[in-house]
Automatic annotation (TrEMBL):
Name of this protein: DNA-directed DNA polymerase
Enzyme Commission number: 2.7.7.7
Stated family: Belongs to the DnaX/STICHEL family.
Pro residues bias: start-end ranges: 411-420
Reaction catalysed by this enzyme: DNA(n) + a 2'-deoxyribonucleoside 5'-triphosphate = DNA(n+1) + diphosphate
Compositionally biased intervals (Basic and acidic residues): 388-397
PANTHER family (UniProt xref): PROTEIN STICHEL-LIKE 2 (PTHR11669:SF0), REPLICATION FACTOR C / DNA POLYMERASE III GAMMA-TAU SUBUNIT (PTHR11669)
Coiled coil: 572-599
A biological-process GO annotation: DNA-templated DNA replication
Example GO molecular function: metal ion binding
Keywords from the UniProt entry: ATP-binding, Coiled coil, DNA replication, DNA-directed DNA polymerase, Metal-binding, Nucleotide-binding, Nucleotidyltransferase, Transferase, Zinc
Organism: Geodia barretti (Barrett's horny sponge)
Domain AAA+ ATPase intervals: 39-180
InterPro entries associated with the record: AAA+_ATPase, DNA_pol3_clamp-load_cplx_C, DNA_pol_III_gamma-3, DNA_pol_III_sug/sutau_N, DNA_Rep/Repair_Clamp_Loader, HLD_clamp_pol_III_gamma_tau, P-loop_NTPase, YbaB-like_sf
Amino acid sequence: MTTSSQVFYRKWRPGTFSDLAGQEHVGNTLRQAVMQGRVSHSYLFCGTRGSGKTTTARVLSKAVNCLDPRDGDPCEQCAICVSINEGRNLDIIELDAASNRGVEEIREIRDKVHFQPAQNRRKVYIIDEAHMLTREASNAFLKTLEEPPAHVIFILCTTEADRILPTIISRCQRYDFRRLPGQTIYDRLAYITDQEGVAIQPDALRMVARNAGGSMRDALNMLEQLAVSADREITLRDVEEALGLVRSDAYLVLAQKMLAGDTSGSLETINDVVWEGGEPRQLHRQTLEILRSILLLSWDAGDTLDLPPDLLSSLQAEAQKHDASTILRAVRTWGEANLRYDAPSTLPLEIAAAEICRKDVIVAAPEVRAPEVRAPERAAPAQSPPREAPRPPRREAPPANAPARESRPAAAPPARPSPPANAEAPAARSSSPAAAPDSFQGRWEQVVRRLGRDKGSKYNLGALLRDCRPNGVHLSDDAATLVLPFTNVANLDRMQEELNDPRVRDTIEQAIEQFFGERHAFTVTLAGANGDGDRPGAQFRAGQPSIPHRHRPGSASNRGKLAGGSVYTMMNRKMMRQAQQLQNRLAKAQQELEEMSVEGSAGGGVVRVTMTGKQEVTSVIIEPEAAEDIDLLQDLVAAAVNDASNRTQELAAEKMGAVTGGMNIPGLI
């Protein structure tokens, strides 16, 4: 194997536009600009790490100064190209903005930029990590960047373009560097290993490319680490050990056991991997990739997978064993495993594996058609008194296995109607004493179990919703709202407090949609005096302000009134829905106003002030031609601030007026 004093990523750095791997859209454009003599004075290169930004900047600096250019590419042989490659050219200045980020460094550039190049035709400034420049330094750089001398080119490189001032971006030609595809990295690594004489198996090389995260530099560093550590052919196991990966067969076995419902085998595999030194996070990530690949293959979308042939065939066989809904549920459950623990605990993975293996909770995913849920029947079943009958949704065949009440004598349940042809419930469910999962009550119990994994701002949502008896939960008369009657006033208070957060409401609605097949609005109420949910008390709709406890039915002051049959009512439901919609539109408009940026000016644009929608000044720009008189300058700044403030208020009034329809609501602006 050939030895070199340079590391791989420096030794094999591309020297021409033609050598740029995976960034042809950038290389071809810059080559044409050089050939036509239309090179810009400033460029902005954006992209992930290791995608070729700094390398392209160096190639461009060589191309504009090369003594013998060839179709827009540098020759790589003249004195200029050689000196730039060796890092000793005085006219190519590279700055790291992470350590040269202040105003003083920018002033030094501004003072030296007018000097003629020492040996090149053009002087090139390459500013790496440009997003690290301070706001003051960026503002000081604006004028020089906009109108530099004819012999100067600025190239700014960044991984976070959103952190650069828009005024800088508008002064540059922007090029976005793509994340390198795995095949592109693999082809480049194969060429380098062939040139360097490194013996490595194709599967091992493909694993390196796959774990590079789209970065050629990271891939070359990993390859060099493997090359110097092995005195023989590098195998797939060598790559897994060097990168700290779980052995390739472990996560495949784990995925197979979870999909097969083997709980003990799944838990044993997880603990075996960790006992052997595997990292739980790596096991989680790689197993999730395997489950994703199986899901794509089950949907006949496996053309995008970049996997070894033997692994691909194993995954194809696994995809044919299970239906897509089972695999999709496994992907969701495994992906939701919470690994935000400081200690490397296997508990989240064990819980996720156990839930995947539980066949009794497998339900139709939202993509699979669920039984239709309709409005409740007016007539109660003949077997029970009307007062005790819960209000189920209207169905073609009402569920006959609803659990009997404690006060009712035990009776043989009527024969259960045969399930529809498209139902896939296991046969063993019919013998379970609990509510059938495809019944209305069974679906609600699954919603509660699902929300048991979610915590609101203070309380566990599933724990609060267990206070709603399954036989009391029902649809409203118009079948548009799910009514959740609470038997405990304290739990109702806690749930109302949680519902003040829109994210909590959205989480509950998503869970309802997942198990009921469609998205329902929901209303929390206090159950009737007998606690059976047949007679709703005060209704608390998601997003309504809380009602003081003393005014709620069930409080000491109103308990007698309810017992006498008095009904506590809220305002009209349609009016409340309209008020809630108006409130949501106002909240959205206020958020947009806070994120808005308004510019005010004074003195014909000599002083410019940028202000947010909250009337907070974010920047003050004073042009060099501004007056030197301090008092006059202060007056100009104050005038610019007032101008920006007036524009902010005008925009806010216009936006709020459009939302409220011209209605004047005090306190909005």
